[in-house]
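Hello forum,

I keep getting stuck at the same step: I have a sequence, I want structure tokens, and every attempt I make locally crashes halfway through. Rather than fight my setup again tonight, could one of you with a working pipeline run this one for me? It's a single chain of 233 residues.
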Amino acid sequence: MARIILVGGGSSSGKSYITKKVIERIGEENFTRITIDDFYKDQTEVPMEERIKVNYDHPKAFDWKLMRSQILDLKNDKPIDKPVYDFTIHNRTNKTEHIVPKKIVVVEGIMALVDRQLREYGDLKVFITATPEVRFLRRFIRDHQERGRSYENIVNQYIKTVAPMYEEVVAPSADYADLIVNNDGIQNLAIEVLTCVFEDQLRKATDGKDHRVAPSNEFSEDILNKVFQNSTK
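Reply #2:
Ran it on my machine without issues. Output:
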């Protein structure tokens, strides 16, 4: 059975960047990584002028039934055909991605810790934080360069939906996290911390023992010491 790591946090807190870097450090052969963004609802029958009005930061924008089903399949070592979302058209593409679970499945996205049933599948729950200013600037640059959106569109969306939904839905989900990691700047220990924690999860996935009930000292001084030792090398 694969171990599931859920990584939540606000838009542009650095979830994708950090998880990719950590997986590269440890070894991609041991990890499957998927993003919750691909589970936005199919809007093929919805006109484009209506799609752009949808609040994509609200839980109702996601296909929870499919998401739960496919993540549970991955946890049970079953491959899935995951939908592929295209932000430029606000809809899924007509393609799917065949995903075969490895020892660790990393599921990241703003809603990763919001749903109770999804949290029950998680063996580790992580929340990435960053200040509103940092998150806004990162999103401003990303949405313009990678998604072709106008500056006015980016600012309006952030004010109307992103910021309010973060405060109402995403931020409170941090209460369910096993670990909260700050990612405000380039020079921090976010990657070092999660590298040690992901390595610990990989060890649990390969040692043949039953780790369904995490010990109370999950993030003990032993793990923290490794973080600081590695950061000073």
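Confidence is low (pLDDT under 50) at residues 214-221. If your local run keeps crashing, start a new thread with the error log.
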